[in-house]
Predict the 3D structure of the following.
Amino acid sequence: MAESGNIRLEIVTPRGVALRTEVRELAAPSVAGKFGVLPGHLPLLAALEVGLVQYTPAGSEERESVAVGAGFVEILRDGALLLTDRFMAQKEVDVLAVRERLHEVDEELGRWEGELRDPHRLELVEEEQWLAAQLELYGDPPVPRLLEHVRTVDYSGVIPGEPEPGEPDVPPPEAP
């Protein structure tokens, strides 16, 4: 049971409990955005996104961070339980190896010609996010490259708007 005014934070991976500590507050990345938890938080169940969990240990003023993979978080009474596929503390980050692998993944994604939903491409994107989270944890985040990996769709022929220079001005269809 958490000490009064604190939250019992547990992060569990397939290998077991990665972190168990008392915290004053925490913030975690969900698929709907980053969220914060203070003592007395309403019950919550959310899907975790790859990123950093930041927390202030009980009896401390300094914030600490760890990297987590995708998973789920349950906030209930005085506890926060995070179930995740990956966990890393800052002291475990091998910056040179992470940067080298990130470069390889970025190059492979940059050359990608296949379907965007191809399982191998999705694995590469997930790995890229995990590597980026590790570098952010270390304090040296990479430059965001999301737009390089997302193909955009040209809706100019679907959405009526101003004609391009040199195109004939076609009136919009009349409503029935």
In short: Confidence is low (pLDDT under 50) at residues 147-155.
